[in-house]
Amino acid sequence: MAEAVVSVSLELLDSILLPTAGFIGEQVRLVGDVDEEVDKLKNNLQAIQAVLLDANQKQMNNRAVRVWLNRLKDACYDVEDVLDEWNTEIMKLKIEGGYVHNAFAPKKKVCCLFPSPCFGFKEVVLRHNIAVRITEINKKLDAIAKEKGDYNLNVIPTNERPNYQRMQTTTFIDVSDICGRDVEKNNLVRKLLCGSSEQRLQIISLVGMGGIGKTTLAQYAYNNGEIKSNFKSIIWVCVSDLFDEFKIARVIIEGLKVPPPNVGDLQSLLQRIHDSIAGNKFLLILDDVWNEDHKKWEPFYHCLKNGLHGSKILITTRKKSVAHIMKSIDIINVEELSFDENWLLFRRLALSKRPTHESEKLEEIGREIVKKCKGLPLATKTIGSLLQFKRSRDEWQRVLHSEMWKLEEIEKGLLSPLMLSYNDLPSSIRKCFSYCAIFPKDQRIGKDKLIKLWMAQGYLGLEKDTKLETIGEEYFHHLATRSFFQEFSKYEDVIYICKMHDIVHDFALFLSNGECLAIEVNIGDNDPFINSSNKNVRHLMLKVNKGVSFPMSICSVKSLRSLLMISDDRENALSGDVLQNLCKLTCLRSLRFPNYRVEEIPKDIKKLIHLRYLDLSSQYIVQLPESLSELYNLHTLDINDCLDIVELPRGIEKLVNLRRLINYGCLALLYIPKGIEKLTGLQTSSDFGISSEGDNDSKACSLEGLKFLNNLDQGSLTIRGLGFVKIASDGKINQLLTNKENLTRLTLQFYKWKKMERRSFQLITPGGGVSCEDYELVLEALLPPPKLEWLKIKDYRGNTFPSTWITSLTKLKSLFLWHVSNCKNLHPFGETAVP
Fold first, then answer.
1. Residues 361-367: contacts with CB within 8 Å, 24+ apart?
2. Angle between the 63-97 and 35-49 helix axes, to the nearest 10 degrees?
3. Which of 166, 162, 134 is nearest to 52 (CA)?
């Protein structure tokens, strides 16, 4: 992880000091005689970076090296903060001086670079402070750099470093199938289907060490057709380390598909379960149970006995004592795979895609490596996924004889293959993996949101000519092929959700060394940050359950870079005091609190100058503060389903790095500000509202403004209010959509909604002077994008659809027409589906 942080700092430093950036180069001089300190900073970082791969390997057996790496990480985070602040100040000068690219005007000349109307004494002092902070950081790095000699750290030769290759040419391998285990599978199914047990509630246990395949066997049972037909309800609960009675009870109620009780105390939850399973033959699967306190299990046991005779509970656990405490008599011991079964699994991963002659040369070494995996399927999957990318015998020999096989932390026999696979990753992908420790165990992880979070931390680089989302896709795919992710949900063969095996999650936590943390706060819990051991956390996922006050101590953790809050209850609210204090977490790069009852965002949001990702979705916000437009680094603003929001900041044009404006479902938002036309890097704007007469035309972006957003080609786009558009006499609107080559989903809505009161809307229509021909002219002028696959047209009052549209929709797969009553006939659509 330290290597990754150093890389980010160096890349950020280079981006500021590029010799071609004339304006930026001039601004550097404003901070005084800082050239020497900047050179020293860069030299220190490069010298340390050269030995970091060796340090990462030695830290496993040398605690002093690990402490040294932690000190280095802290210093580099300070470097990143000060450089980002510096870069932001330069950006601010450029924006306020008019040097940012503008679609309507040529670039201006550089103004005077010394105190003048362009900037004042306050700005010069700020730049001087930045110089002072760089000097202070250099003192820390000097000491750290000198200490590296104490640990005999070596520079790893280039030919032994991980060689990252773009992933487009590799084939994704899904390793979720069970290899072998026929005896265990048959035994488990037999026990679950057997109805002759004298126990009213039979409890079956799968017991074995971590990574042995217990969860995979339980999943096999959960998805088995014969078992599904034998039980009315099948419920899956991931229990994990902490036996959280409230969480377990709520998940069981959800699995039973009954409404939860109005009161959230444990007794009410258990009573609802007791009543709901009466006469119900159910199978409850409790995965990864650790609890050895029978008092916590006892209320559940008595509650669940109310089910129909033949109901079963299946638990997976690493401890046989847990099975006994939970009154389990039927215990299936899940042993290591036989060598032959393990070899088949390994060969399928590492050798199946190679020519026969190449596989034969590697088979002998492969068999020796499989022996080191000790019959653990997870170890075999991990190391097999690593070796599928290694082509030569030398590379395989290096893995076979690695010192990493001597490591025994995390879980016996599993740290070695995980660490081998991890160390083989480029530093840019390592930091992406360790960041995943922010998610709780068994959390379903959305791929797109994960990529946005990586981007916010700078993990995907600062490239200007490459879409960072594409790099994120490649990194995700790389980790998936190495078996760091599993249990994929796909749509048309594209992964959109995944999970991490609990052992892999433990490994990610081990690597993050306290930087990543997931906390769930319930009634009666202690303040999570009273304990000083949490003070160094930098990435936090927080779930505050119903009836619990927000733990204000979190606002004292000034080092936080990610704060992702979760709420399952729309009644949870964040008060103005909480939000005001959150604005003091000035190191934040990601801030997310959807589904909370928030009505106003404080003006002090502008203090979060490093913020890249802001998720305010499903809030009660009426208006975003104008100061939000001072978040110059923001690349994602998510206001999805903010039904009450009526206006975006007029200064939205200052958000020069905004790539995604996710605003679908903002029905009260009648128009988009005119300044959005200048955000030529914008890739996503879910909902584009067109102003009608009297809708502050001077402030609103017109339909023609779409033509400046040439990169607006990701995801889907909705254009609302087309019925209010007046087409010029030439009947042409040039290249509004036709130049958006990757736009595949489009909604054209001719009417729009007007907000009457909170969450209450009225459909508004164009005035009586608008004819059927006016509608047809708009549609004829607005030619579709070339790769459109999905089209919805709403409230269209034309008599026919222009032939230019019909002939242009060559890629269309789905067409939805809503309220198009005037249209008497449709031209032939060929293979187009018309629901």
1. 361/393, 362/393, 362/396, 365/393, 365/396, 365/397, 365/400, 366/396, 367/343
2. 140
3. 162
DSSP lists the bridge partners of residue 307 as 278
- What lies within 8 Å, CB to CB, of 564 at 6+ separation is 438, 453, 540, 541, 542, 590, 592
Do 240 and 210 touch, CB atoms closer than 8 A?
A: no
Local structure of 75: helix, strand or coil: helix
Q: CA-based Rg of the chain, rounded to a whole angstrom?
A: 30
The model's pLDDT over 156-212, given as tens digits with 9 standing for 90+, comes to: 665 555 554 433 323 333 444 566 788 888 999 999 998 766 667 899 999 988 888
- How many Cβ atoms from other residues are within 10 Å of residue 167's Cβ? 17
Q: Are the C-beta atoms of residues 750 and 722 closer than 8 Å to each other?
A: yes
Q: Which helix (H) or strand (E) holds 513?
A: none
CA atoms within 13 A on the CB side of 423: 24
Report yes or no on whether pTM surpasses 0.70.
yes
**What digits encode the pLDDT tens for the residues 470-527?**
899 999 998 988 888 988 888 777 888 999 988 889 889 888 888 999 988 876 677 7
Task: Tell me which residue of 561, 541, 563 sits closest to 431, measured CA to CA.
Answer: 561
Instruction: Name 520's bridge partners.
Output: 543
826 closest CA partner among 810, 805, 795: 805
Q: Architecture of 195-333 per CATH?
A: 3-Layer(aba) Sandwich (3.40)
**Sequence-ordered strand ranges (E) for 672-744:** 684-685, 687-689, 716-720
Map out the domains of the chain as residue ranges.
Answer: 2-160, 167-176+338-506, 195-333, 714-835
475-491 burial string, b = 16+ CB within 10 Å, else e?
bbbbbbbbbbbbbbeee
Among the listed residues 187, 253, 243, 269, the one whose alpha carbon sits nearest the alpha carbon of residue 220: 187
